[in-house]
Amino acid sequence: MGTVISTEAYTVIDTIVIDTVTPECRMAFLGHSRVLDIQIHRPNAAVRVGDVILGRVRAVVPSIRGAFIDLGDQ
Questions:
Q1: Angle, CA 27 vertex, CA 23 and CA 33 arms, to 5°
Q2: How many domains does the chain have?
Q3: Per residue in 5-18, pLDDT tens?
Q4: pLDDT for 23-36, tens place per residue?
Q5: Quick one: 41 exposed, middle or buried, by C-beta within 10 A (0-12, 13-18, 19+)?
Q6: With the C-alpha atoms ordered 19, 11, 56, 53, is the resulting torsion angle positive or negative?
Q7: Helix/strand/coil for 13
Q8: Which one, 2, 7, 18, 72, has the greatest CB density within 10 A?
C-alpha cells in the first residue's frame, strides 16, 4: 500500500480577539479574516481537558520553535 499525501491546506490562526466585558471570557480565533474557532470560558465552570488557559508569553525560543508561557499562580 502506498503513502497517502493530503493536499488540504491548513489555515494558520493570525488573529485572536478576546472579549472580557462580561464575567465570561469570549475568544474568537481568525485566519485570513475568517472565524476558525470560538471559545467561551466561564469563571465558575470546572476545568476540563481542552480548556483554554490564559497566559502571558515570557520568552520565545526560536531554536526549539517554542515559547515559555506564564500561567500565573492560580
A1: 150
A2: 1
A3: 545 566 788 899 99
A4: 888 999 988 888 88
A5: middle
A6: positive
A7: coil
A8: 18
* DSSP letter, residue 64: G
Q: What is the Cα–Cα distance from 8 to 5, expressed in whole angstroms?
A: 9
Residue 42 · residue 53 · CB < 8 Å = no
Range of the domain at 70: 1-43+52-74
73 and 59 Cβ atoms separated by less than 8 Å: no
3-state secondary structure (DSSP) of residue 60: strand
> Nearest-CA neighbor of 16 among 25, 7, 24?
25
